[in-house]
Give the backbone structure.
Amino acid sequence: MKIRTKHLLLLVGPLLTVMGLYAYISISKERESHLKELQNQAMVLAQGLRVALEDRLQQGRSDEVKALADRIRDKTRFFRISVFDRDGRPLAGPMVGGEKDPGERRGLEVTLKGGEGQSSLEEIAGQKVFSYWVPLRSARGETLGALQVSVPMFHLDLILAEERSRALLTIVVMTLVLVLTISYSIRKSISRPFERLIQGAMALGGGDLKHRIPTSGDDEISVLASEFNRMAANLERAQGQILLDMEYTSNVVDSITDGIIVVDREGRITTWNRAMEQMYGLPAGEMAGRVFLETFPALYQEGAAQALLDLLAGRAGAFHFREFEHQTLKRGRVIQNFAGYPLRGPEGELLGAVMVVQDVTAKVALERQIQQSEKLAVIGQLAAGIAHQIGTPLNVISGSAEYLMMEMKGDTDKAGELQVIIAQADRITRLIRQLLNFARPAKLELGVVDVNELLRLVLRLTEPQISKEHIRITADLAEDLPPIAGDANQLEQAFLNIIVNAWQAMPDGGTLTIKTRAQGPGPRSLGRSGSLHTAYTVSLDADFIEVSIADTGCGIPPENLSYIFSPFFSTKELGKGTGLGLAVSQRIIQDHQGTIEVESQLGQGTVFIIKLPAMEGTPHD
């Protein structure tokens, strides 16, 4: 119920009650007043008629009595005149010739027996009637008859009904005037100001802090409106300051070079700074409100999800992961320093978590390159020492064996043994030469290289032998492939080593698939993903071409995948491999500013992916 209605009921209700009681009391008093007035008039009328009627009855002129009574009755509005003789027979009046009411009969009998003027309130024919009785006597005091002046009370009721109607009309008019006056006053002084206050509160609740309420006067509501406006102004200033603080804090967070992620108790992302946008390639607007662990489900397999869940549940404190390998949505796998800390409120309650992410992919790759360089330096020193120490003895052994073979042409058994000595000495010499080439690579002789043509050359060299092993070769070489700047001889050696490796991984036959295609720049990653594993990759900043060499062989066990490019690492039988082929291939690709990746699934095959920068200004898909 609105305030105006309540005030109207509170003000008009008691007023109507008082006015009703006043009207009731007034009408009751008016009734008594009218009743007394009628009684007095009846008494005066009776006393006035008494003399005239006594003269006529004393002279025996009864017919004139009736005529006089009729004239008086016609001239009066309320009174009824009845005249009776000494025997109680009616001489004039409405009851002439009829039976009298018992009440009237009692009044008549008392009057004829000598009673003086008396009044009575009787019920005659179902109506209340006031009667005044006067005895009619002769000059000698003899009773000649009786005079009855009566007034039916319904006449009084009619008068009172008119009074009630006038009183009710007065009350209705006064009530209407009061309601309109009070309603207008309440609306002007209370309802409208309160409506403005309500509108202001709703606007404030809706975020419109610039809304103000017009004020006038110095009453309580005006004071309340002024205080409301002051509160709104304070809130507006506070909001402005909060926005400035939030913007400052946001700028600070965005200026931090490390990635900052804030999640609430449900794990939904509330903050995703600029560094995270750059690291993950995902805008903050897209990440806001998303569940962090649902967005990056790989964290469950990578071992970080449970640490975050424990932190959000309050079961554990901060966590730290160094050089943590993580699968992103757009950048592939990266290496991070990943830490999480509890986010608490002013009362110490747990609000969520703050995670700090530092991308160390390039740093780790550089460290591994440095380690690889250090290894190569050691291998170079070792290879140089070996070549110096055993090169001459090998030459002596090989030369002596050849001389003995010339002396023993007739002894085939001994010549065969000497041939073995010479072959093994040559094998040692080739191994030392490979080691020296790996440790101290030759200077690149760069030129324009058509990768498709280079691959066709390698396939022509190997296809005759590969086809004997029941291996089917499929070549899908992209047309209009841009050339690269490279050393054709060294790239041929790199591709040859990888193809031979794939060939030897399919002893029972299979399919060797070689594909080329041109691509734009795109970040790559270091690590492994799911059942497919990736090793030793670096970001490329230029357009490049991609060469994939896939086999359907036995695959590489996951535990060996990170070692396949290590020198002297081989899973082949003794004497069938030196462990330098893939290491040399990787070194050649890296010398050409490219990358080499391997993806393998045990029992299903292996894919080597080589990416080499295309020459500037060349078209690509």
About this structure: The CA atoms of residues 420 and 547 lie 40 Å apart. The first strand starts at residue 80 and ends at 85. Residues 522-542 have pLDDT under 50 and may be disordered. The first helix runs from residue 3 to 58.
